[in-house]
Amino acid sequence: MAKTNPGRFFEDYAVGDVLRHAVPRTVSGGERALYHALYPARHALYSSDEFARGCGLPEAPLDDLAAFHLVFGKTVPDVSLNAVANLGYAEGRWHRPVYAGDTLRAESEVIGVKQNSNGKSGVVYVRTRGLNQHDDLVLDYVRWVMVRKGDLDAPAPQTVIPDLQNVIRAEDLVVPAGLQFDSYDFVQAGEAHRLADYEIGEQIDHVDGVTVEEAEHMLATRLWQNTAKVHFDTTARPDGSRLIYGGHVISMARALSFNGLANAQTIVGLNGGAHANPCTSGMTIRAWSEVLDKAETGVPGVGAIRLRLVATSGGEPFALRGDDGKYLPEVLLDLDYWALMPV
Amino acid sequence: MAKTNPGRFFEDYAVGDVLRHAVPRTVSGGERALYHALYPARHALYSSDEFARGCGLPEAPLDDLAAFHLVFGKTVPDVSLNAVANLGYAEGRWHRPVYAGDTLRAESEVIGVKQNSNGKSGVVYVRTRGLNQHDDLVLDYVRWVMVRKGDLDAPAPQTVIPDLQNVIRAEDLVVPAGLQFDSYDFVQAGEAHRLADYEIGEQIDHVDGVTVEEAEHMLATRLWQNTAKVHFDTTARPDGSRLIYGGHVISMARALSFNGLANAQTIVGLNGGAHANPCTSGMTIRAWSEVLDKAETGVPGVGAIRLRLVATSGGEPFALRGDDGKYLPEVLLDLDYWALMPV
Amino acid sequence: MAKTNPGRFFEDYAVGDVLRHAVPRTVSGGERALYHALYPARHALYSSDEFARGCGLPEAPLDDLAAFHLVFGKTVPDVSLNAVANLGYAEGRWHRPVYAGDTLRAESEVIGVKQNSNGKSGVVYVRTRGLNQHDDLVLDYVRWVMVRKGDLDAPAPQTVIPDLQNVIRAEDLVVPAGLQFDSYDFVQAGEAHRLADYEIGEQIDHVDGVTVEEAEHMLATRLWQNTAKVHFDTTARPDGSRLIYGGHVISMARALSFNGLANAQTIVGLNGGAHANPCTSGMTIRAWSEVLDKAETGVPGVGAIRLRLVATSGGEPFALRGDDGKYLPEVLLDLDYWALMPV
């Protein structure tokens, strides 16, 4: 009886399957400190218990993206061990903050499958849920990946492509219970800009850059218990490079975006995202943002800002695609998300 | 009066001496988080407070090997500062888990000495005990090292070689108080294999590999307050390389062994171990295991599995020694340990 | 409206201005564990809750230098983003320890300005205060930096140079409330030397060295939320190197000084300091100390030792300046501080 996990192949997924992912994880102040060591994270709500209490939360939560990475990491052995590519995200929502002492687990439902015309692989759509120790929903999102077939003779399943929203409607965003910005301290937060100060279409160059190192992205990726070989093993890719986990780029870019978006405190929605080009050690990650939309939430004083967050390894800010409509080679990430901000 | 520690030389050890090692250490969630960042550790009992409670423990302990490294680190200034080689381990037992808030200290008793025939060095045997803030024994083990003489004219001591067990008897293994696997959740643990599914002689290739970096092994080795120069200082060895702490290889291999041994949750015995060849930055560590024995413990449902854990920097799995009987050059570690597993 | 922080230029500072720095920070066991992973820190008072309780404190505090770095980091966006050089420190005092759960914030008062004769830059003196969640003073210090002018036509301000003490008087040092060394455990602390064993003028070579890596200094500098570009971005300096945060060198040297000064437990005063030469990745940091003074404090049994701590990247110990009176090129740091030690 083989003991190691060979991962699932395309033919192993059927719409309606629910995969209970292994290895629940309890977080502490240790994960919070490491997040601050790995990324230049400075959003005050996640840095200071006092600031968080001033905003109606019991203490500073773990960064929203750390919660995302932890949940994502759990799915890797069941979803993407044999994946050829991580194709997209949609309908990601954060439902409640994660605090020190919380234990996260994850499960994914297969919501779509489509075999590729070459017969060698297919696309699998899953909706992943992160749950805490009370079985409360912490976050959920849809992800689709291209997965190899293990048995090329396995019959093609009936194609099911889920109907996914391009953008989460503002009224579907969840404001964490208790969160309010009535006595928000803009000085302590680091910038004076409120939602009213941002215009739709406005672009912000976040200026700073971080040159990334192998040791750092591996520490991060292990911290999320993400086991995909390509992030750790120089013998796993033909060119001997280690592919940096896309979530590392997301967190780096989001942290860099503090400079210009310090008050976009809480990530509540992930509308979509593309890892446009691979990131490897030695690249200097920069970021720019574009305001895509603004909206009210059900909580007075708490607004929602929809942002495009682009990470690059160089080039001019605000350049995204070439004349051919494809991402420029220096674009690493194109992310579309909702955050909460004082109105 | 010289203020710095010159370390002890061979002639400074006498059988019966008890060395009280310095710098007690309190651990927190920080050490636990760092362990997960440094190694691809996924054993559920050490990852999730909820899982640990399901197994009868109050919360997830610090990884057993982290406790070992912390105790080991304390011994370095007194035992191995002038060591030429770390020769072996025996009779290692874990007596109780370490939890956040516990403070560890260590002491070692000299239990054997044997001067080498060259008159320039000798072998020192110590039994090291790790104790917590209640003076409870946390773990103990025997280690022997070759130590240089400081004064070549010092007389050779009477040779004392301790009588050490090759293998800890199963009845001498300590099951942590309260531990039970009656409602063990194999799905959350990550694999379905119970002790009955493993056969003596079975070999498991753990498949995954991690290419190691200087920054990571130094972070780890400092975390355990291990001060041996060769791990940190490129000027300390003729070739300018830093020798990776052998315990870093042990933890890396043990974490990799999750894939195939996810239910070998708790390390309770260290029968022996050899650091077969030095590990340096840039190597890709892989691991394979061999089931050496299986046994019952005093707790129904909790079985013991005796495993050989081999870490390599390449080569074929399951290759250990050449025709000359020596370890193959790519073998880094050959460890013999007992772990607890659902029967 | 520009959204990113351009930093302040010389003409933006006026004596009497108080800058409230952004992003308060709550610390936990995570920051403490990371400090031990980043530096070979072994002072027992900061390593063990039990040892700290034996010295009258409620638990082991965060390392004093970690508190300093956290406060320093907060000042960077307001004080040194456009700095040409960090010129000096004075009158640094630690007023109370920082414990897990404490939240630190910082503010700086401009206490001096002097435009340079070239009209392109000037020196700004600030007194920075670190405060906890109870608005208690945690530490304060004076720092002066050379800052570029943004508008070369801005008029030169009236020169104000603060009157700073070269050395903090022993009677002005603050012994943390409750601290006593009456039942001090020299064995657990690691060395037998008490204040009486040190002579003024005595020099100590701390022997050990650590070769520094990019990943490590960036982890540390981010942990302190220090955002200065030169530490992270290989494109920010003409030679493509990353300049290691001076505080990283301070902490490394202080940790190395354990070997010979294990009982200089608590840093209570910073008399001055110079980052003599830049530190970059690959250098092997060593340290030596010189006893500059000894004094009583108001607490019987608790003495103060004034130390010069020199970090180097090579060369002979105790060599500091060349015949020209300038620091030797291998000298990285020349720090003058007070620490508390059993008499």
UniProtKB/TrEMBL annotation, chains A, B, C:
Pfam family, one: MC_hydratase
CDD domains xref list: FkbR2 (cd03451)
GO molecular function, one term: lyase activity
Top-level taxon of origin: Bacteria
Record's protein name: Uncharacterized protein
